[in-house]
Amino acid sequence: MSNLNEEVSIKLIGKITLLLPVLEQKLDLQLEIKRAIDETLYNYDVQTKCTDLITSDIEEKAALYRACKKLEGLSPNTLENYRLFLEKLDQFYTKPCGTITTMDLRMFLAVLGKGKQQSTINGYITMLKAFFGWLQNEEYIIRNPAAKLKLTKVPKVILQGYKAENLERLREACTTEKEKCLFELLDSTACRISELDEIKIEDINFTEQSLIVTGKGNKQRIVYFSTKAKLHIKAYIGKRTSGYLFVSDKAPHQHIRVRALQLILSKIKKRTEVTERVHCHKFRRTQATYLLNSGMTIQGVQKILGHTSPDTTQRYAQLSQENLRNEYRRLVV
After folding, report:
1. Residue 151 DSSP code
2. Rounded to 5 degrees, what angle do the CA atoms 202, 279, 270 make?
3. Residue 241: helix, strand or coil by DSSP?
4. pLDDT digit string, tens, across residues 5-20
5. CA 251 remoteness from chain centre
6. Whether the predicted model's global pTM rises above the 0.70 cut
C-alpha cells in the first residue's frame, strides 16, 4: 500500500472514531476496520490535490533532536535507539510533524507493537512523548499529539542476582589476571560494563580502593573495590602507569571495547557448569541486593549504582525475607 493510501486509511479511522467514540477504547475493533479499509483501497492508487505539500520533516527534526540530546549527555546507544525508532516513524508517515495526530500515533504503535511485550510498547510510547514533547517545547509544533498516549501498567518484576555458589564457580574459572581483574571489579563495584571499559589507570586510587567512573549523562561518581580486586588490578597492569585499564594482550596493547569484555565473561562461563544466564549487568543487581541486605540505605545503594531515582534502585535490589523479618521484629515486637 502506498503512503497516500495509508494516510487516507488512517484519516478515515480517525473520522470514524470521532463519530463513534466507543471505538476509542477498542483498539482491536479499530484495527479490524482499518484492515477492511485497506482491502478496499488495495486496487486503487490514491492521489492528492496538493502533492507538493505532502512532505515529511520527521527525518530533519529527528536529526536536530538527537543533536540536542547528545549535548545533554545521552549515551550513544540511546541516541542510536532513537534514530532507528524515528526512522520507522518517518517511513510510516509522509507528512510534516505538525500534522501528525494522536490517532496517527496510536495506529503506528498498533502496527509496530504487534506481537511485542507491553513493556516494549511502553518504551515506544516514552520515546514518542520525549520527541514530540521536545518539538512542542522548541515551538516546532503547536500541540503535542503524544500527550494523550497512556502507558500501560506492567507488573514490576524484581530479577534475581547470581546464586552464591555460581558466583564462586565463575570466580574459580578465571585463569588470567585480566579475567580475574574484570571479574573482581564487576563483583565489587556494581559498575556498568561500559563504565569499567572507560577506566584509566590514573582513575584508580589504590590507597582508598576507589575508582572515578563516568556513568550515564556523563555524570562522574566514586565507586569502591574489594581487596581481591586491588590485588588483581595491580597484577594485571604490571608496570603500566597510564592509559586504559583494559587493553589487548598483544602489542601495541590498544584499548579494548565493551564487546571484548563481554566475550571474556562468556569464555569464563564456558569453563563452568553454571546454567543460569551470565551477563555483566547481573553483577550490579547482585551487589545492590547484597548491600541492601547488609544494612546500607536505599539512598546509599542508589549513589553506588549511579541512579538518578531510588525507584530504579529498588527494582535492582530486594530485601531478603530474613532481613524483613528482623526489621519487623526490631520495630514492632
Report:
1. P
2. 105
3. coil
4. 777 777 777 778 777 7
5. 35
6. no
